[in-house]
Structure formats: structure tokens, C-alpha cells
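REQUEST FORM: STRUCTURE PREDICTION
Request ID: SP-0412
Submitted by: Lab K.M.
Chain count: 1
Length (residues): 482
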Amino acid sequence: MRRVLSVTSECVPLIKTGGLADVAGALPAGLAGQGWQMRTLLPAYPGLIKQAAAKTAVFTFDDLMGGPARVLAGTAGGVDVLLLDAPHLYDRPGGPYGNPTDFADNPLRFAALSSAAAQIAAEGLSDGWRPEVLHAHDWQAGLAPTYLAQLGCEDVATVMTVHNIAFQGLAPAAMLGTMGLPLSAYTSEGLEYWGQISTLKAGLVHADAITTVSPTYASELMRAEFGMGLEGVVAARADRLSGILNGIDMDVWNPQTDAQITPYSATSLKGKATNRKALMSEFGLSGLTGPLAIIVSRLTSQKGMDLVAATADQFVAAGGGLAILGSGDPLIEDQMRVLARNHPGKVGLRIGYDEALSHRMFGGGDVVLVPSRFEPCGLTQLYGLRYGTVPVVAATGGLADSVIHANTMAQSAGVATGFQFHPIDEMALAQCLRNVITLFSDKSGWTRLQKRGMKQALGWEASSAAYAALYESLIGEHRSAT
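STATUS: Completed
RESULT:
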């Protein structure tokens, strides 16, 4: 099998704070079907060595950013993991990035991860395994291509995947020496960014290829309103940029086998009505004549939750209901509390996150609202499609790529799977929700929309094939160059 080293700060099932972990955990199995063996390098946060039964040391460092370290091989949930055991950097309480605020030495902690990845790629592991491709994810692994180039390694291809360009891995320029970076790299064409180091920029500049998690997001990143100051860097490398849409775990998210709900399928939606009734009871809702919309999201303006707060009164007045699960900006949390207080029996709220409850919400909801102002890929709308919970999404990023808007022509052609709105503002969302209520009253038309969404190919097969093809092309380029 071909070999690729994935470098990430989180990975399901070991550690997760967001969608990056889902992608890192799903890719190995998808790529195995394409003839690729992926090993995933991530920090050995507390408890992970035991979880992965990682006992075999396959690489050691006398001094990795201030202390000795080793790489331990193990497995977790079918993922072949390499845990970077560096207690001086990772053996501390709290989340992977802070407790509760960011750790001050995060630039050093993840520079170490990138440096370890580069050394593994250049030298190989003690068990004889050496990658042909190094695949870095987000700013935490952004320096890996830079370090690999410093080592003079030219026979390993590099890929940089941007999951969210808003997080850029900034560090003071004074840390160059501490991070093992030469002054010559600190230029506007290199990793310098407005007087600081940007580890994400380093990856964008030095990787052989750049990918993002949806085709539309790839295009958006070259525009000022989405590029977060790095749009020029991305645009300069447009010929090396591609967007590969994420998939979901079709076994974990399966309405026919989900233990949290009464099962149903695209052939028979009978169980969904039972789940709807149960969900309404759980959230204290009753008397809805329109659709039950669910929100499973961080409650932030980036996720468009302020737009929901501004339009919910109209939606409820037209017969709709809302079941909300999430946490985030205290101001928006308060706006949601006001909605629930003003509309008893029509708006239900749970502050926080509950994985089992989220499954029940997708099983019982009619609509899932995803009005994000920007969304690199998004998984929520994919879960909605899978469960026949019709997505209502902003026309941006992966939302635009994965939901086919139910306009007149799309409905006539029998291809619509949900609703999009644009521009991303209150007026457009309010009008979109009026259209949702209109179609919901057409039970046969609504059922067709649900079933069409449930039949979409939402797994990792196509995405994995795209990554495998990219790896092959890069390996071919390196062979030609040497």
C-alpha cells in the first residue's frame, strides 16, 4: 500500500473539539479503500496513550522544543495513530489548546508537532515505515512543510488542508529561534504576517498542494471577505488549490440503526413522525401547524444565530417551532433565552451540547437551520440530509456545495434537496423560511424533498478518491523533478 502521514491536533475517537477531528478520524478508512495506508500523528494529551494502547516507541527525540520526546504507535477506533509523547508540552490538564484560555506556549507546542512530523517523514520510523506524502491539517501542523524543506527532504510530497482560515497560528516574531526557524524564513513571501509568525501562512506558502474542505470555500478564500487577510497568499497559489468536500460516517449517522430514535428510512418515513412527537415532548413544544426546525450549533454570529433570533418571531407566528441545542456567545445565548421565554410551547432551548440529544433532534426535526455567514464545509446539513431533516442553509462554502436549492426549476427537475438563501441577512432568511412553510404544507412535495435528501451520497468514498488522486499526482511530480 502507498503511505501517507496525517498530522493533526485532534482526531476522533481520541480527542475532539470540532469538525477537524471528524475529518482526521474518517480519512484513514476511506483512503484504505483507495490503496493508501494513513498513519495519524497527534499529541499525546493526558489519557490518550492508554486509550490507544500505544506501547511501542517508533521514534525518539533527545530534545524536542525544550525536552525529550518519543512517538508511540497504537490504534483507536480503527485509526492507526502515532502519539507524540512530550510531557513538557502536552501533559497538562484542560483541553488540547487551553484551560480554559489558550496556553501561552501553544506556538511552541504545535511547532513541536510539525517538527516531529517532518523528521518522521525525512527519516522514517524504527519499524521501517516512511511516508510518501505528509498531509498537514490547519495551523497546528502548518510548519510541517517548512521544517521538511529545512531538512532537505525532496522525495516526500506535502499537502496543506485549511479547515478554517480564521485560525492562523500567530506567534511573536521573537519566537523564531525558539521554534527552530531561520531568520531567512521571516519574509513577506514566507511566514511573516503583519509583524508576526503565521504557521498557517507557512503551510500555504511551502506545501506542494493546498486543499480546503469544499470547492466553494476554496474559491471564497481568494476574496477579502473570506480570506481573513490571507486571500492574497491563497490567490497567488490558485493553481495548487482545490476543494474536496467532507463526508460523514454513514454508520454512526444512520436513521435505520440509530439507537437514539425510532428507526425509519427513505422507503418508509413512518418512524420520523414518532420521533417528531417525542422531540416536541422533550422540548416542551405543542400545537405546531408548521415545521419543527432544529438548531444544533455553536451560538455565534459566525453561525448566523443572530439572524435566527431576528426572524424567529415571524416563523413561529406562521406556525413553526424551534428546538435549539448549543452554546457560545453569551449575548446570543441570552437572545435565545428571550425567544424561548416569549414563545412558550413553540421554542425550546438547551444550552450546552449533548451528542445523544443531537441524534434525537435530527431524527425528529422537519428542518435544520444552518444560516452561517461562512462555513468551510459544515457537517450539520449533511446529517440533516441523511435523516430527512430538510436543510435550510446560507449560500456559502460547503453549504452551497451540498444542498440543492428547491427553486421552481430544481423541484420540477426532481433534484432539490433543501433551501438556500442569499444574501446572508435577516430579510433573505425570513423569505426563505416563508418558502419552507409553503412547501411544508404540500405534504407529498415535502416528502419527496425529504426522501431525495436521504438518498444522497454523503459518505467518504468520493472525497477519499479525490485525496488519493491528489497524492498520486504529487508523487508523480516529485519523481519527475528528481
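NOTES: The chain has two domains: 2-247+461-481, 270-454.
Reviewed by: T.R.
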